[in-house]
Amino acid sequence: MIYHRTVFCCFKNFYLREKIFSGKVINVAIKKEEYELMDNAQSGMKARVDVKRPWLAILPLMIGSFVGMFSETSLNIALPQLMKALQVGQSSIQWLVTGYMLVIGIILPLSSLFTKWFTTKKLVLFGLAAFIIGSLISGFGINFPMVLIGRMIQGIGTGIILPLMFTIAMLIFPPNKLGTVNGILALVIMFAPAIGPTLTGLILASGSWRDIFFTFVVFLVIAFVIGLFSLKNVNQITKPKVDFISIILSIIAFSGLIAGASLASELGWLSVQVLACLIIGIIALIFYVRRQLKLEIPVLNMRVFRHRNFTLGAILVMVDFGIILSAMYLLPQYLQNGLLVAVALTGIIMLPGGVINAVTSAFAGRMYDSFGAKWPARIGFIIAFVGAVMLSVVTTYSTIWYVILAHFILMIGAPLAMSPSQTSALNSLRGLESADGSAILNTMQQIVGALATALATSFLTLGRNAVNGLAAFKFTNGVHYGMYFTIALTVIGFIVALFVKDDGKYTD
């Protein structure tokens, strides 16, 4: 059976199809609705861009995204060593984490613009090359500024690679396979922070902090070589107008807020420098948001916040991300400086929590289909509250099993609230707004993560200075103060979750 042509007869609302059957030409009339269903079914089997080996084409981005997420959390293990090696204090060393996430947060909203100005292959290879160069600069760094510059260059690479992975996947895989594909890509991202601390601990046990960055380089060079031969140009170059004012305002806004929060741990919240940074950041942020609302094609479409479910879901995701990042920053340092645990053992202690985080994230995604976001979010924040409280009362004599249990509980609660909240937020949007919402969530996660780390450092320093005694005792007291901040976030998250109506049946 071979179809030769299809003609739409507007006056009868039918499609006529000529086909050959047993050597005879037969005209078959098909209703318009039936034809469109058939056409959609057939198109669902085809990707928007034909690539012979789509998995090989996406592999460089998967490796790059894995290293990017691995880098985001794993370095926390090495911070005590880095402080000694680079001869800097707690307030300075945090910039290796906050600076990295700050750059990602600035680059992420520009990813869509980049794809309209540069080919896919050039963008991906540039992102991988930037990460390689940044890792080499940090690895060979002889002082703190050099290591920090390398970290911020790494952030450029992650900011480009991470959103491109999902964008390219949408183009090179058939629509009927995107569910499976996105699940695998999400697993790559979840697995990185789960295994990151353990791998970092093992690397540090047998080498130095420099080897962490050199490990990044090995993976990224492999990804770069594969990309040279497998990457295809799948985007359309349109070269739209670039709104440089928005870019400048976003840099000033986010940098000002994060710099202010970071400097507060050393200079105090009421210092002139801190207040100046915060005021400038807030003013720039206000102008940035107003400009996005007025622009016909904004960098970040702030209009999506008119949807109630998106706003609530976005707040929950931001708060939840703050909980995870602050705890992941404080815990490995407490283990090394409070309990005086060896760095290799630190990574092993954090492994159960990392694994349950990944498992719960995958499980929680399915829960949304049955329960929506209302109950998973509320229960998740309650469980996270219990874990945070347990970590807030640790001492220099706490047992390892107690710390593992507390971390385990926290890493059940936080992802249990995270995935349904994110799904609820994005499900409230339609059409192009879905991409806008995703860009906003990804951007704000990095900014909030950087702010949460900076605030956790500030409370850590405040707690250390509040008591006298041995270094381990003072540091543990600082961890208490930092975890009070984490507890406050769980309470805020639970209160916001009480306003969520999405139970799987509710629609915005």
Short structural description:
The protein has helices spanning 32-43, 54-86, 90-93, 95-107, 111-117, 120-139, 144-172, 178-206, 210-230, 244-267, 272-294, 308-337, 343-371, 374-392, 400-427, 432-465, 471-497; strands at residues 2-9, 14-21, 24-31. The chain has 508 residues and is mainly α.
Notable traits:
508 residues; mainly alpha; Growth Hormone, Chain: A; 4 domains; three-stranded antiparallel β-sheet; 17 helices; 3 strands; 75% helix; globular; disordered N terminus
If you had to describe this structure to a student in words, what would you say it looks like?
By secondary structure, the protein is mainly alpha-helical. It folds into 4 domains: 2-43, no CATH class; 50-238, Growth Hormone, Chain: A, CATH 1.20.1250; 241-296; 307-508, MFS general substrate transporter like domains (Growth Hormone, Chain: A, Up-down Bundle). It is 75% helix and 5% strand. It has helices spanning 32-43, 54-86, 90-93, 95-107, 111-117, 120-139, 144-172, 178-206, 210-230, 244-267, 272-294, 308-337, 343-371, 374-392, 400-427, 432-465, 471-497, and strands spanning 2-9, 14-21, 24-31. A 3-stranded antiparallel β-sheet has the order 1-2-3. Helix 4 packs parallel to helix 7 and helix 12 packs antiparallel against helix 17. It starts with a strand and ends in an 11-residue tail after the last helix. Mean pLDDT is 81; it is low at 1-43.
